[in-house]
Amino acid sequence: MAKKSISGVAGIFLTEGKVVNAARKVREAGYSKLEAISPYPIHAMEEACAIKRSPIPYMTFLAGIVGMLVALALTYYTSVIDWPINIGGKPLFSLPAFIPIIFELTILFAALSSVGLFLYLCGMPAIGVPPIDKDLTCNKFAIFVPDTDKNYNFETLDRMFKDLGAVEVKKVTEF
Amino acid sequence: MGSSHHNIELKISKFQPALAFKYSAYAGILIGIIAAVFGLFNNPERMWTAYLVAFFYFASMGLGGLFFLSFSNASKAGWHSSIKRLAESFTQFLPYMVVTSIVMILGYKYLYSWADPTQIHRMTGGKEIYLNFWFVVARVIIFGLGCLAFKHMIVGNSIKQDQNGDVKYTEKNVGNSIGFIAFFALFFTMFSIDLLMSLLPSWYSTIYGIYMFAGMLQSTFAMLALVVIFFKNSKFVSGYITVEHQHDVAKFLKGFTVFWAYIAFSQFMLIWYANIPEETEFYLMRSHSGWIVVSIGLLIFRFIVPFLALLPREAKRNDMNLAAVAILVLVMQYIDIYWQVYPNFNDGVPVFGFYEIALFLGFFGLFAVAATQFLSKNNIVAIKDPRLHEAIKHHVTY
Question: What is the pTM of this model?
């Protein structure tokens, strides 16, 4: 959950293997708030950064149930209470006919709330945040440690990143 | 990815089924044969209905194994290469499927009204031509021999590759698999229409083949999940078959649970909505007295329970939970085929007893003997598969 205006230090790496290794080492050194930045998903990174499972799937499930209930209420209200019409001699509340609507609204609620929650958890849209390095969306990787982390020390981290193979260490004032 | 948590020792040894299992399988075959011969003279109709259900159940499983291999080969999947031998063992039932489908021709006159020449004139709309006795027999035999030929090519290439690891076998199997998928789509539809839908020859449902296909793959993945759990925890193999493969098989199981519900509902809703007499017949038979219980049971235990029970990630990676769901699905597949067959013979009263159990055991014995013989003769992992490295480091993130 990146919030606006965080400052700290970032080590820039050139290979996937080095950045995964660095993430693990930096975390093991006691920096718990680190962020890894990569142009593409790296499978081993969850384990290296000790990223917890996202809460999004649970939210998706709950939103799906809400969508199901909303659709049930909608079909009941429209076909039984508000405008009852006899269609083919079938009961006013004919569940099989409503299943497609219930299904669609379940999916719609689940999908849209997942996307919404995903954007919220990522702190997006964040407009005008200066990039740490323009090449981080292309061919470079970074480990970022915010200065709010306990025992944050620029000199220690600078040395640590360089030992782990960073090509560059940047002091980031606003991210 | 050079992460350290993949350093698991890789080894396989010869598979030997437990003696008790082997003897039970042979005992099952014996019980099945005795029940079949006994039933032939005492209650042929009941015996042949039980035979048809058990036959279709295990034929589906053998075909499902071959279909899984085919779509994985055709999509050039890598993750399945360490468990593909297990699916190949299912296909070893196919020779028995051909033999037992030919034996079943003897029972056509008890099962199908179209097999009676005095009844054939009552069918209309070209059905008297399509359901001509010898035309049906020809289709069933062509289907059986065709599947056997594709099984021979696809599984045969995989076994040959164990010798020298030649990539050409993998390449050849892509074409074979695409050929099988096309052949199977057409002929399995006819196979299920000929053997199950035609029990009620006046009924029409164009989605019927897909319905049986959905149940087939769901139950195949349930069986595959059980076998994967067994080998993951067995002493015969280590490192090759892991919780990651179990997770992916469980995902397929869940996917086809949803697919089955989708197809079953599609068939039901259109018939219910249109309310045309020649279509509603099928559901009317199954919506009163004893059969409504089975119909509702299918909805709950074949879709709702497995779907919810497989939803969380940990549920798919937990052996006990996955095995319980897989067994439930396997039971429901039997009940589903039973539900296709029995209401045509027993109006209002589901019957279940000696013949159903004995013939199921007979076919199960054949299936188990064929599969375990194959696994004890060959390596349980396709060790020279060019994509095996993908399967070994396979990692399911979500």
Answer: 0.88
